[in-house]
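Hi again,

Forgot to attach this to my earlier email, sorry! This is the prediction with zinc ion bound. I've pasted everything inline since the attachment limit keeps bouncing my files.
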Amino acid sequence: MVVLTHGHTDHTGAVNAVSRAGVPIAIGADDAGLLERGANEQLPANGFTGRVLRPYISRMTFAGASPQVLVREPLRLDAYGIGALMIPVPGHTAGSCVVLLDDGYAVVGDLLRAGFAFGRIRPHHPLRHYFAEDVSGVRSALDLVLDHNPQQLYVGHGGPNVSADDVRRRIDAIAPPG
Ligand SMILES: [Zn+2]
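Structure tokens for the complex follow:
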């Protein structure tokens, strides 16, 4: 199985070939349309850098793919050989999900990013992501992830990992409380 944290093209672009090879694809139900169309649609910027990057990222498209597993509520992935729980957490996109692995790691996609200069400087330093459709949803998602007491969070940009303690310390800067 390939588990997608959300439907943005920079997280899904290779999935068409993988899917054609017969590997099932799982994604949050509300991001299935993004994946099928192979395009980034809404990209509400979360600050200056997001506004600068948006025109370039909006143009990133790919062939698209049809997911086999649409996640609408928390889903254990044991049947697919993964000891983990996949949970819908709308915020970065409407269909964003996190994956909480039984070994204490959390895969959180673009709930946050890490490091300056695209992760080259202080790569494990947690920061607000450039884009979010709903910042209060991002905050709820981070609170949910931290409530599960993971050791490390794996992010889509930078890192690749940040410590849960560093995220707790900086949570108001990453996503202010609603
Ligand atoms: Zn994204």
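The chain has a mean pLDDT of 94. The longest strand covers residues 121-127.

That should be everything now.

G.
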